[in-house]
Design a protein that fits this description.
With about 160 residues, the protein is of the alpha+beta class. Helix content is about 40%, strand content about 10%.
Length: about 160
């Protein structure tokens, strides 16, 4: 069986990347308290690898800066992501990878919500329900194989 027989979206559209933002010295100084903003959160998730393609979620337009909401004062982060195709079987895995990356990278005070962009997936409600259920997420991460796949998505290639 060839790769093209296993892939759902054999020839995905590859999009450009945002320019890396210029980091100022105060942002690197641990003694300076600065608020976490949408661009900082986007920079955390933009380089997550797609589970099926050797491309990042940003390159596939699965995550976009405009779909990242951060309220530092309310300790909340909300990410909307758009699977490349409406019946993507990897949607839950992608959402889980985004969620895990943010849980690992952000201060624990943040409530992280990861959802499918409305109308972009046939199983949007079911996937969103799974991603919002802390017990299901924890159980998924106890599965060694699934955790290995998530970690592969999070590792830089």
């Amino acid at each position: 069986m060839s790769d093209s027989d296993r892939l759902e979206n054999v020839n995905p559209t590859v999009h450009g990347r945002l320019k890396d933002r210029h980091v100022i010295p105060d942002e690197e100084d641990d003694d300076v308290v600065d608020k976490i903003d949408a661009r900082e959160v986007f920079d955390l998730i933009r380089n997550i690898n797609d589970p099926e393609h050797p491309l990042t979620l940003e390159e596939l337009n699965v995550v976009e800066h405009a779909q990242v909401e951060v309220d530092d004062d309310a300790n909340s982060v909300r990410i909307l992501f758009t699977p490349t195709i409406p019946h993507c079987s990897m949607a839950t895995l992608i959402g889980l990878s985004i969620r895990v990356k943010l849980i690992r990278a952000l201060p624990s005070r943040f409530k992280v919500d990861v959802e499918i962009y409305p109308g972009s997936h046939v199983s949007e409600l079911a996937v969103n329900k799974q991603l919002a259920d802390k017990e299901r997420v924890a159980a998924a991460l106890e599965n060694g194989h699934l955790l290995e796949v998530v970690n592969q998505c999070l590792s830089r290639k």
